[in-house]
Automatic annotation (TrEMBL):
Top-rank taxon: Bacteria
Chain ranges of the DUF397 domain: 11-65
Start-end of Polar residues biased regions: 1-20
Region (Disordered): 1-24
InterPro entries recorded: DUF397
Name this polypeptide is given: DUF397 domain-containing protein
Pfam families: DUF397 (PF04149)
């Protein structure tokens, strides 16, 4: 990606379905951007987001679901 800045000011964030009910320990993602998946800590919505290529995020989520991660 030539420009590492992605404008997320109007993004629709979705909270992880694995988040606990009291709003803590939450990850939020944006699902509808072409080729990328921004991820942030819901406790810091104005803080930084990490932007992953869609394929890398998909591989990560699959590994978490399958617990196919080293040390897990």
């Amino acid at each position: 990606m030539a420009n590492s800045h992605v404008d997320l000011s109007t993004a629709s964030w979705r909270k992880s379905s694995y988040s606990n009910g009291d709003g803590g320990d939450c990850v939020e993602v944006v699902d509808d951007l072409p080729g990328i998946v921004p991820v942030r800590d819901s406790k810091d919505p104005h803080g930084p987001a990490i932007v992953f290529p869609t394929a890398a995020w998909s591989t990560f989520v699959t590994a978490v679901k399958d617990t196919d991660l080293p040390g897990v």
